[in-house]
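Sequence in, structure out.
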Amino acid sequence: MVRQEKTAAVEDVRQRIAESNGALLTEYRGLTVPEMRSLRGELRAHAVYAVVKNSLTRFAVKGEGIEGLDEALTGPTAIAFVHGDPVAAAKALREFARTHHALVVKGGILDGRALSAEEVSKLADLDSREVTLAKLAGVFKASLFKAAYIFAAPATKAVRTIDALREKQESAA
């Protein structure tokens, strides 16, 4: 590559990292072309999966001020530039790696910080954004229901007390 091409490639990788919600680094050695195509298809909803040169990625990561990825940037590397939910992308990579043992997650970048392979695995264990929001909505709904019950309780108790007094007067007469 000519120096201008390398500079443009570094800038492209840096820009992809800057614009993405995260990046997940993998080693794809041993995957066939159809398997790579299948992986790209599974990640399409959440990320763009691209093979990158380690040296260019090192410069791009340094340009973004991210440190701690030197170990991950060895061997053949492909990066999933996440444009959707990072948790969903991590889950998709983990599921693909379960059936295709040649795919190895090496690390990642999230919120401008380097992640180890173990941290990416923990990220994949989290609930997706939609599930977390649904759980939160359930908690709010339960709190509102409880508040409505507490506010209605005195009125209900008063009605029951008045009804009991009325029945007592009727039975006494």
